[in-house]
Amino acid sequence: MRRSEVLAEESIVCLQKALNHLREIWELIGIPEDQRLQRTEVVKKHIKEEGETTILQLEKDLRTQVELMRKQKKERKQELKLLQEQDQELCEILCMPRYDIDSASVPSLEELNQFRQHVTTLRETKASRREEFVSIKRQIILCMEELDHTPDTSFERDVVCEDEDAFCLSLENIATLQKLLRQLEMRKSQNEAVCEGLRAQIRELWDRLQIPEEEREAVATIMSGSKAKVRKALQLEVDRLEELKMQNMKKVIEAIRVELVQYWDQCFYSQEQRQAFAPFYAEDYTENLLQLHDAEIVQLKNYYEVHKELFEGVQKWEETWRLFLEFERKASDPNRFTNRGGNLLKEEKQRAKLQKMLPKLEEELKARIELWEQEHSKAFMVNGQKFMEYVAEQWEMHRLEKERAKQERQLKNKKQTETEMLYGSAPRTPSKRRGLAPNTPGKARKLNTTTMSNATANSSIRPIFGGTIYHSPVSRLPPSGSKPVAASTCSGKKTPRTGRHGANKENLELNGSILSARTFKGFQI
What are the boundaries of the region Disordered (predicted)? Predict the structure, then answer.
């Protein structure tokens, strides 16, 4: 074989070895198959170059590529190590398993990218859980301080006493942390409720025992807050007041009775319902009597709270009804026309508004009461009767009252008319009106004289008593041309009465002349 052929074969073998070595490197650094094909095509192009690259140049190029790949391998391994360290640290804090990746092989760019995203997610999870941990820890410390509670479990000590960075932010620990906070908040709420109950007892006992204001102010510091020392001080104050209550039994029972009356009024108790509580009228002020009163006031309070909305609705109707009656009274007052400043118009508008409002309130209450009666299977009573019956009774009483007032006015007008027919009307000051010229006295006298002149001498008047006819004693007019002789003067003054002031109907019948010179509705007879 020729030497040239030998060299060609050796070149082919070297080239094959170089390509095999390249494939091993590509496999080692994790270059995917598609990129291997591209790189092989590049090598092929180099071999087919027109410049007929020598074997030495080809070796140089291949060595350059190898160095570049080794550098990439080193960088990827370093990044992989750094990501693994970060992953380990985050997973220890979050109590999560480590990211699964082969440490021996060189990671591909895609694998590194996925690993980076995983580490970023862990960092975000850590930040979120840490923020939640810090917030819950702060609330737990406040609750423990409020309850005077000292951490007594290892978990509580880890939360409150240890460094925040050392706390494991696992989902389990976060859940346990939340549970601990709920327990403490429940204890705090219960403690606050107990303290408020003690304060309510203290205020109630203060009112019943009529404790002076300066003595109340002395314990003002414990009337807020719910710490253990505050609760203890409140309990001591309740005990002291309870002992004082036993020493002032009569005073306390009378105070409870005043409160009972207030609740009876708020619950619209009838007289029979109030009398049913016999201890209210007992005078033997014993501890047993006090207990009976306490039990009754508790029962009434509960009854009022359960039906508070209904009672408030009835109370609103009562207030509206009273206001309506007040406007009705003003509307029937004859002196309202002397009103100035437009109040009369305002009152009339308000009265009309209330008159429309009342039926709406009644319908709303009726619907609510019917629903309540269906739920409780009993009637809702107001002052001992059903509410709608009570409402109907109030309207009927109002109608009867208006009818009675109307009849009284009619009777008064009738009596006034009778009096004017018998004794004449009292002189009234004429009201001044715009646009009306004043009357001339001379014309008025002439009109009266003419009217009376045309009257028949034997004219008569039938009074409203009926029956008897009284003849006017006015004389007949003289012949034409003579001056008429007036039976009375036209000066406007009344002729003095003869006899007693209290002359009755019988006197008038016996002496008809007394009727002369009297006035009857503005005309002289």
Answer: 405-447, 476-504
Is residue 105 very low, low, confident or very high in pLDDT (cuts 50, 70, 90)?
confident
Task: Give me 463's structure tokens.
Answer: 């009074």
Strand-pair category, 519-520 with 460-461: unpaired
Residue 440 scores a pLDDT above 70: no
Percentage of residues in the chain having pLDDT higher than 90: 12
Name 523's bridge partners: 520
pLDDT at 499 over 70: no
CA–CA distance, 73 with 42 (Å, rounded to integer): 20
| Other C-beta atoms lying within 10 Å of the C-beta of residue 139 | 14
pLDDT-based confidence at residue 467 (cuts at 50, 70, 90): very low
Q: Determine how many CB atoms are found less than 10 A away from the CB of residue 143.
A: 19
- Statement: the pTM of the whole predicted model exceeds 0.70: no
Per the CB < 8 A criterion, the answer to whether 182 and 143 are in contact is no
CA angle 236, 239, 245 (to 5 degrees): 145
Q: Using an 8 Å Cβ cutoff, are 433 and 426 in contact?
A: no
Could you say which of 1.20.58.1520, 3.20.20.140, 1.25.40.10, 3.40.50.300 is the CATH number of the domain covering 255-333+343-419? 1.20.58.1520
Hey, is 435 helix, strand or coil?
A: coil
Q: What is the pLDDT of residue 339?
A: 57
Q: How far apart, in whole angstroms, are the C-alpha atoms of residue 77 and residue 112?
A: 10
The CA–CA distances, whole Å, from 267 to 245, 260, 273, 304, 368 equal 27, 10, 11, 6, 16
Q: Report the 10 Å Cβ neighbour count for 207.
A: 14
In what helix (H) or strand (E) does residue 508 lie, and over which residues does it extend?
helix 505-510
Average pLDDT over residues 265-292: 89
167 phi, psi to nearest 5 deg: -75, 135
- 496-500 CB contacts, 8 Å cutoff, 24+ apart: none
| Tens-place pLDDT, residues 159-178 | 888 777 778 888 888 898 89
List all residues 6 or more positions away from 369 whose beta carbon is below 8 Å from its beta carbon.
310, 380, 387, 388
Long-range contacts for 45-49 (Cβ within 8 Å, ≥24 apart)?
47/15
Helix (H) or strand (E) holding 448: helix 441-453
Q: Where are the alpha helices (DSSP H) in 248-386?
A: 249-266, 271-275, 287-306, 308-331, 343-376
Question: What is the per-residue pLDDT for 258?
Answer: 92
Do residues 209 and 248 touch, judged by C-beta distance below 8 A? yes
Angle, CA of 49, 53 and 55, to the nearest 5°? 135
Amino acid at 237: E
Q: Where are the beta strands (DSSP E) in 409-472?
A: 460-461, 470-471
If you average pLDDT over residues 386-391, what whole number do you get?
81
46-95 tens-digit pLDDT:
776 655 667 788 788 888 888 888 898 899 899 999 999 999 989 988 88
DSSP class per residue in 347-373: HHHHHHHHHHHHHHHHHHHHHHHHHHH
